[in-house]
Automatic annotation (TrEMBL):
InterPro entries membership: Peptidase_C15-like_sf (IPR036440)
Name of protein: Uncharacterized protein
Transmembrane segments: 194-216
Keyword match Transmembrane helix: yes
Superkingdom of source: Bacteria
Keyword tags: Membrane, Transmembrane, Transmembrane helix
Length: 307
């Protein structure tokens, strides 16, 4: 895992990378050559998606959210709370362009794979603890993404329940507790407990506004995240916060779908800078280390490629 300290440090974004969502992921070539994780998530159908360590979440809200998480980790109130960001691939239900993208998978396959990816992190977080609480945030729709698979995942009871079972054998649902901006999903079984806390972060005042690109500024979205997190913390202090966002650019890149555990960000949406943005990459390796720990164990919800 020592190689992780150097991973991505020599990454340089493509000069032509713009702010349009389809053009902001310029790390594909770097990750393809140097990825340390080399994992695969397999759906019930047998459909496969790569699981990799990303080096550039782009310049959309996903990048800004990772910067928000990095800033949060520096606050005394969240000392010891692990955080990180995972990019989820689009699927054929994501939007109009995705329907005809034959390299993309079905929504069912995507959510099953997402459950395995998230469960890998939750499994490591739950090791040696009892009653860990993991916050999962997702994003709502935006231009070109009518149905965001991350919102679909955290809103799907069956796949959340599957995540809990994959993470800790023997868990079953005890209750779901709505908290307004968030929901707590409590699990227990065989002497173990787990809580998944979920929230969807809207990117605009309405779905129609989001689809038209009339977004909130980044500070408003960050404030919405803080509000949802505050509701959760007041009831159930978290062990970890894992944010999910869709890599919609994969619609236009005809390659096998890939989940990306992001390792660094500059944290801004085009020219719109949130309070946590930086021109230099901010490194954040906590979540990546969890996945590499899972790789070292060699078992669990993911299949790991040989060295």
């Amino acid at each position: 895992m020592d190689d992780l300290d150097d991973y991505g440090r020599d990454y340089v974004p493509q000069a032509a990378a713009g702010v349009a969502d389809h053009a902001i992921r310029s790390g594909d070539r770097y990750v393809g050559r140097r990825d340390l994780l080399r994992a695969v998530a397999v759906a019930v159908s047998g459909a496969e998606a790569d699981v990799q360590l990303g080096v550039d979440p782009g310049t959309f809200y996903c990048a800004d959210q990772l910067a928000n998480l990095i800033a949060l980790a520096g606050e005394p109130a969240f000392a010891g709370v692990l955080s990180g960001f995972i990019h989820v691939p689009p699927d054929r239900s994501t939007g109009a362009a995705a329907v005809a993208a034959t390299h993309l998978l079905s929504r069912a396959d995507n959510l099953q794979q997402c459950a395995r990816v998230v469960a890998t992190a939750v499994r490591e977080l739950s090791e040696g603890t009892d009653g860990a609480t993991v916050v999962l945030t997702a994003f709502g729709p935006f231009a070109g993404v009518i149905d965001n698979p991350t919102a679909a995942f955290v809103g799907d009871a069956d796949h959340l329940d599957a995540t809990a079972r994959l993470a800790v054998a023997g868990l079953t649902l005890v209750e779901r507790e709505p908290l307004g901006a968030a929901t707590l999903h409590r699990y227990a079984g065989e002497g173990r407990k787990l809580v998944l806390a979920t929230a969807v972060l809207p990117l605009a005042a309405t779905a129609a506004a989001a689809l038209a690109g009339r977004y909130f500024d980044t500070d408003t979205t960050a404030a919405n995240f803080r509000r949802a997190l505050g509701v959760i913390v007041a009831v159930q202090p978290p062990r970890a916060i894992v944010s999910l966002g869709v890599d919609s650019g994969q619609v236009l890149r005809p390659a096998r779908p890939a989940f990306r555990v992001e390792t660094q960000t500059r944290g801004f949406h085009g020219a719109t800078r949130g309070r946590t943005a930086s021109d230099a990459y901010q490194r954040h390796l906590e979540l990546a280390r969890l996945f590499l720990r899972a790789r070292a164990r060699g078992d669990g919800p993911l299949r790991f490629q040989p060295d």
